[in-house]
Write a structure and sequence with these properties.
This is Carboxypeptidase-like regulatory domain-containing protein. By secondary structure, the protein is mainly β. It has one helix at residues 4-30, and strands at 35-41, 47-54, 59-62, 70-76, 79-87, 91-92, 97-101, 106-111, 114-115, 120-127, 130-133, 136-142, 145-151, 160-168, 182-186, 193-200, 203-208, 217-226, 234-249, 257-268.
């Protein structure tokens, strides 16, 4: 015959255990099954962070892989979202990317950035003994050639000065096709080429090294590196100097020749 007290204890433990199991089961059922957002940038390094924005205004951010441009959001609550990113310097975009996350599934995304093809860095020189620094740079860098134009801010006496260097790989009368690091003579052919400009009151003066049939100077490229499909993928630095005849003097204030010395550039494109 079962002791009454023992039976009561057994029934109480059974009820408590069943209640605990029911509690655990309900808790697991209440946990939502998240989804995954897996994406990539069309250009690695075009942004430092990608942000996932929910319709409720909540956000989460991750840093894309610096080399591959890939990124992942995991355990995302199912729903409608959009992806956005602040572009790094030199890029535009991207447009907001809408997507729907479903439980237990992976949503793919690709953020497209467009280059603004700007050049950043420094360029300086002395011209006829006066030092100048470019406040604006433009041009391009690739294995197809190096083109850099540096323009000063408005000068105290009025006007602006500008130096342009062109070292292409191809071109007629190109005596030293661009090959990266190396020395490039100026004046013995049309290319490589250097110009000096002075702009004043809608007039300009121009000096150039074209077809002088003698070396008037050189551009020395001391560093050149290019990495395709990454932000700011090409860099170059070097020095330059030249003496060139003034071919146009519409301001009436330029000497017969300009002498450019101590020229330096360190740019990224």
């Amino acid at each position: 015959m079962v002791n009454l007290l023992t039976l009561r204890r057994f029934l109480a433990l059974t009820i408590v255990g069943a209640a605990g199991m029911a509690s655990c089961t309900n808790k697991n059922e209440a946990e939502p099954i998240g989804g995954i957002v897996q994406g990539e940038l069309n250009v690695a390094g075009a942004t430092s962070a990608v942000t996932l924005i929910g319709t409720n205004g909540k956000t989460a951010s991750v840093a894309p892989d610096a080399t591959t441009g890939k990124f992942v959001f995991d355990k995302v609550v199912p729903g409608t979202y959009s992806l956005s990113a602040v572009p790094a310097g030199g890029y535009h975009g991207p447009s907001a990317f809408p997507l729907t996350v479903k439980a237990g599934e992976t949503a793919a995304a690709k953020l497209v950035f467009n280059r603004d093809y700007s050049m950043v860095g420094t360029m300086s020189w002395e011209q006829n003994g006066v030092a100048y620094t470019a406040s604006q740079l433009k041009g391009s860098l690739s294995w197809g050639g190096l083109t850099i134009t540096g323009t000063t801010a408005p000068l105290p006496g009025g006007g602006t000065r500008e130096i342009a260097l062109m070292l292409p790989m191809d071109g007629i009368n190109n005596v030293a096709p661009f090959q990266g690091v190396g020395a490039y003579p100026l004046g013995t052919g049309k290319l490589p080429r250097a110009w000096g400009f002075y702009y004043l009151n809608n007039n300009f003066d121009q000096a150039a090294t074209d077809f002088s049939n003698q070396q008037l100077g050189q551009v020395q490229v001391t560093r050149f590196s290019t990495k395709p499909n990454v932000a700011r993928g090409t860099t170059a630095s070097g020095t330059f100097e030249f003496t060139a005849p003034v071919l146009l003097n519409t301001t009436g204030s330029s000497p017969a020749t300009i002498s450019v010395t101590n020229g330096k550039f360190d740019v990224t494109y």
